[in-house]
Specification:
The protein has helices at about 40-55, 70-80, 85-95, 135-145, 150-160, 170-185, 190-205, 225-235, 250-265, and strands at about 5-10, 15-25, 30-35, 60-65, 80-85, 105, 110-120, 120-130, 215-220, 240, 270, 280-285, 295-300, 305-310, 330. By secondary structure, it is α/β, with parallel strands linked by helices. The chain has two domains: about 5-90 and about 250-280 and about 315-330, ATPase, nucleotide binding domain (Nucleotidyltransferase, domain 5), CATH 3.30.420.40; about 100-245, 2-Layer Sandwich (Nucleotidyltransferase, domain 5), CATH 3.30.420.40. The strands form four sheets. Strands 3-2-1-4-5 form a five-stranded mixed sheet, sandwiched between helices. The protein has a five-stranded mixed sheet with strand order 8-7-6-9-10. Helix 1 packs across helix 2 (about 70-80), helix 4 runs antiparallel to helix 7 and helix 5 crosses helix 7.
Amino acid sequence: MNEKKYYLGVDVGSVSTNLVLLNDNLEVEAYVYERTRGEPIKAVQKGLKQLVEQMGGEVPVYGAGTTGSARMLSATIVGADVVRNEITAHAVAAIHEVPEANTVIEIGGQDSKIIILRDGVVVDFAMNTVCAAGTGSFLDHQAQRLGIPIEEFGKLALKAKRGTRIAGRCTVFAESDMIHKQQVGHPVEEIVYGLCQALVRNYLNNLAKGKEIRPPIVFQGGVAANAGIRRAFEEALQTEIIVPRYFNVMGAIGAAILAKERTQKTGRTNFRGFHAARLEFTTTSFECSHCSNRCEIVSMMLEGKTVANWGGRCGRWEVGDIERLDFTVNL
């Protein structure tokens, strides 16, 4: 029997669903990086099954935390002890990886963030959830247009001596400009690196505008896999960019760390167990007409019984206080 203690972190976003298991020393023992594909419940349950496979069987989990845009939904599935926003989770993970970190750059498929840290405390942040030109989807789209696998995008960018100037403030303008540069004979590797520079320029001119970016700088999120983007940031900021080993699951790592902190204080966990991967969860929604806010209430049901509601401003529909559900286990 496995005598180790483990802590589960879950980060569910619009593009990817990430799960990690940390041991008692907060080291990654297993992790999953999967596409959400518009089905977050299935993605989380698939991730739980994959963790069990990687560990060679179910292991004792002493705490679970969730983050990401679907953090409430995933909290209900796994039985979370702590639920935190992405800024908090990514900051905690970055500080764990690089204790002296002053800046966190996080770029995912559909959004991007900058977190300013001073002495281990978040003092400022900004998020972009609207414009695709500063996110991974920008590169995905342009790579597809060029007929280049996104996995090869970064390697190709590193071959360029310089970057072709691409108008990157908007994905539509960028594509039009890129096509023009192809037509006049710019080398493809310079166009690719130019696209990397355009994304970095967009990020710094919008998201990071007015913020003091101090090193050490930690770069995380799925786009951190792109060596071309890292090079473009280093050239623009004239400093080293640190990419953690588990850059693509840092949000989940932060959630797991927070779960350990919480359960060590409470002495109990709400984790349902890995059998949650086999339970039947469904969601539905309705509009509350009690006041002029007309809140959209999301309901989650477990095998036909409502176990959680969220989305309201007043708490009228709140059901299933996570800390009081009947799967709480004393440690």
